[in-house]
Design goal:
The protein has 172 residues and is α+β, with helices and mostly antiparallel strands. It has helices at residues 20-25, 40-53, 65-70, 92-101, 105-112, 145-171; strands at residues 2-5, 13-15, 18-19, 36-39, 57-60, 84-88, 117-120, 124-128, 136-139. It folds into two domains: 2-141, 2-Layer Sandwich (Muramoyl-pentapeptide Carboxypeptidase, domain 2), CATH 3.30.1380; 143-172. It binds zinc ion. Zinc ion binds next to β6.
């Protein structure tokens, strides 16, 4: 179900913790408009996550096509359809990733509320309500600390082996 978020209602709540004003502030309405049309379910999904991980700061909601191209982002972006939110929180990506991996009850509830796409970032998550039998998913977080450590150890081994070979050859 789509709802129209209007400037004159900016102090109203969409769900318990999301207001019309904060979503309008991070939206790019179509030319000449001060209102945006968005899928109500994306807010139900956001509220469910909020109830489990704490405050989420929206940084992007509706985007008109012209603005979306300047980011740049694909024309098929769910933001252009009014079906996506970008939400900042330091732990939300880990939490949501764990729910997906474990196919948890939280994940099933989120899918029932309409969750159709998830993007993981260092700053938080992108969520959307695309209609899809399989979850749209991407993980754009930087490499984890363990991966960096492992690479460093490999590099040290190469250097030390290389040094021994060099010494052995130098003696000849
Ligand atoms: Zn997004």
């Amino acid at each position: 179900m789509f709802i129209t978020l209007e400037e004159k209602n900016r102090n109203q709540n969409i769900t318990e913790n999301f207001t019309v004003g904060e979503i309008l502030d991070v939206s790019k309405p179509n030319q000449g408009r001060t209102s945006v049309d968005m899928d109500y379910n994306v807010f139900l999904v956001a509220q469910y996550i909020r109830d489990n991980v704490g405050p989420l700061i929206p940084s992007s909601a509706f985007r008109n096509l012209y603005y979306n191209r300047t980011i740049p982002s694909k024309d098929t972006s769910q933001h252009v359809k009014g079906k996506a939110l970008d939400l900042h929180n330091p732990v939300v990506a880990n939490w949501l990733h764990a729910q997906i991996k474990n196919n948890s009850n939280h994940y099933k509830q989120l899918r029932n509320l309409g969750l159709g796409g998830v993007g993981l970032y260092d700053w938080g998550v992108h969520i959307d309500t695309r209609t899809s039998s399989r979850l749209g998913f991407w993980d754009f977080r930087k490499k984890k600390a363990e991966t960096v450590t492992f690479t460093s150890i490999l590099l040290l081994i190469f250097i030390s082996v290389g040094y021994r070979l060099f010494k052995r050859n130098a003696k000849k």
